[in-house]
Amino acid sequence: MSIIEEKKGVSNVKVVTANEAVALAVKCAKVDVVGAYPISPQTSIMEYLTKYIETENLSMEIVRVESEHSAMAVAMGAASVGARAFTATASQGLLYMAEMVYWVGGSRLPVVMAITSRAMGAPWILGNEHTDVLLPREWGWMVLFPEHNQEVFDTIIQAYRIADKTLIPVVVGLDGFILSHTTMPISIPDQSVIDSFIPKDVPKPYALNTSNPFTHGNAVHSNVYLEFRYDIFRTIEESEDLVDQVDKEWEKLTGRSYGGVIEEYLLDDAEVAIVVIGASSGDAKQAAKNVREKYGIKAGVIRLRSIRPFPVKRLSQIASKLKAIGVFDRNMSPGLGGMIATEVKFALYDLKDKPIVQSYIGGLGGKDVRIVDFEKIFTELKEIVDGRIGVQRVRWVGLDLAAVDSYFEEV
After folding, report:
1. Staple partner for 118: which of 81, 107, 176, 253, CB 3.0–4.6 Å?
2. Count of Cβ atoms closer than 10 Å to residue 161 Cβ
3. Do the first three CATH levels of 3-254 and 262-405 match, i.e. the same topology?
4. How many CB atoms are located within 10 Å of the residue 405 CB?
5. Binning pLDDT at 50, 70 and 90, where does residue 9 land?
6. Where are the chain's structural domains?
């Protein structure tokens, strides 16, 4: 516990799963309305919230609906009248919810949604993957991705501050099962600290008002729609500094900071670095330490904490000092490459003396990604820099080609 936390009287330490950390943050944020529908691995978030309502007499309203589509519709309806709203989903549930997710983004309503990332069928699977959590980045939402349980709690709180400030809804992603069901200790600030950080009496120009009637999402002429989309684009693009600022303000109150849009690890003298998001970041950091000690490779880690806004400015500053970057994606765009790798290449397109960027895809469907896999990425990046091997459009981590060929021969 930091000195700052002690001065603030923070002594409420709980040992919880990341899903319960989400629920605790929602409770502490004094959310008014939750749209709830079960889907693994996020279901226990709603179960914890239900328990808090029953045992602590919370004024929060949980609306149990018949589908994920309706869960987001409930959150949208609540937010449109000025209530603080929340929901959570994953995988197929997000796909079923998609129409309303896009509608909330276009309506500029400050909803916060947790996505416990999980691969999508077919084939049917429960394992972790980041494809689902990355989809709303195209739908007018900001997307933040914490690494561990404490950061999950803190990021939910920060997300409401960002959403209220920008009138852009925010996704907080967390690795399904890998993190959502893993238990860790977290420290919870005094309620007065959270209330001061995300007050509920902020201006709500979007809130429907019977004395001054207006609508959300009414029909517009095609000449106007472009300007609506541009304003969302501009607001998210310009929010990189805001995410940094909100994280620094949280640090002043709690003593905890996560680097804003990017956490930098061992980058002061690094020549090669891995870009990574989520719970795998810890393994990448350990691998960087290992290859420094074993092989003398000057390795570092760039943990993207914010996917939208995409941290173009910070990433460009970091990349300008590197010789090669390996982007590890726990997702893919079929036939092209990793989603994040594609965006990193685009973000650095006008950087003079840009580093080599090598795309890596692995961990799909929850397949294990080990520290040794990240060590191999670092050694390959060094070999690329030294000219011993060439860059490929995509390198696959943990792929068993023999199994692939055998399976499809049988089919």
Report:
1. 176
2. 23
3. yes
4. 10
5. very low
6. 3-254, 262-405
Structure tokens at 241: 């500094």
Angle ∠(14,16,18) on CA atoms, nearest 5: 130
The whole-angstrom separation of Cα 21 and Cα 140 is: 26
> Which residue, 138, 144, 187, is CA-closest to 21?
187
Alpha carbons 157 and 136: distance in angstroms, whole number: 19
As a whole number, mean pLDDT of residues 41-45 equals 98
Alpha-carbon span 29 to 23, nearest angstrom: 10
262-405 fold: Rossmann fold (3.40.50)
Q: What is the β-pairing status of strands 299-304 and 306-308? A: unpaired
Residues 176, 19: Cα–Cα separation, whole Å: 9
Per-residue pLDDT reduced to its tens digit, 201-228: 999 999 999 899 988 888 889 989 999 9
CB 182 within 8 A of CB 149: yes
Residues 6+ apart with CB under 8 A from 409: none
Alpha-carbon gap, residue 137 to 209, rounded angstroms: 30
CA distance 402 to 25: 46
The two three-digit tokens of residue 385, written as one number: 């820099």
Residue type, 294: K
DSSP-assigned letters across all residues of 364-392: GGG----HHHHHHHHHHHHHHHTTSS---
Question: Does residue 326 contact residue 377 with C-beta atoms inside 8 Å?
Answer: yes
pTM exceeds 0.90:
yes
The pair of three-digit structure tokens given for residue 352, joined into one six-digit string: 């003079």
Confidence of residue 3 (pLDDT cuts 50, 70, 90): very low
- The Cα–Cα gap between 346 and 327 comes to 13
Task: List alpha helices for 88-188, DSSP H.
Answer: 91-107, 131-134, 149-166
Minimum mean pLDDT range among 5-14, 195-204, 344-353: 5-14
For 122, the 3-state DSSP assignment is: coil
Pick the CATH number of 3-254 from 3.40.30.10, 3.30.1330.30, 3.40.50.1000, 3.40.50.970: 3.40.50.970
Instruction: Say how many CA atoms lie within 13 Å of 243 toward its Cβ.
Output: 32
